[in-house]
Amino acid sequence: MDALTWFGLFAVTAMLVCYALEDRSHRFILAFAAACALGSIYGFLQGAWPFGVVEAIWSLVALRRWHLSKGVSA
């Protein structure tokens, strides 16, 4: 596997792990947003711009969820 494929594997694995752990801490929501941003970068670098756009939107949605959850869970 080349470096770009490893980067993509890391990004989507991080997304999966952070999504699974979101209920434990609002920090995992922020980490999920960051992983989605990495997934978006991967999509654009790979040439799959629709994937890149969707992941960028998911990143923004997760950032909003993190912002709203900061005061709820400590």
Report what the structure shows.
There is one protein chain. The protein is mainly α and 74 residues long. Helix content is 81%, strand content 0%. It has three helices and no strands. Helix 1 packs antiparallel against helix 2 and helix 2 runs antiparallel to helix 3. It starts with a helix and ends in a 5-residue tail after the last helix.
Overall geometry? flat
- Give the percentage of residues in beta strands: under 5%
Total count of helical runs of at least 4 residues: 3
Task: Output the structural class.
Answer: mainly alpha
Number of strands: 0
Oligomer: single chain
Walk me through the topology.
Blueprint: H1 3-20, H2 26-46, H3 49-69
Could you provide a short overview of the structure?
The chain is an all-alpha fold. It is built from three helices and no strands.
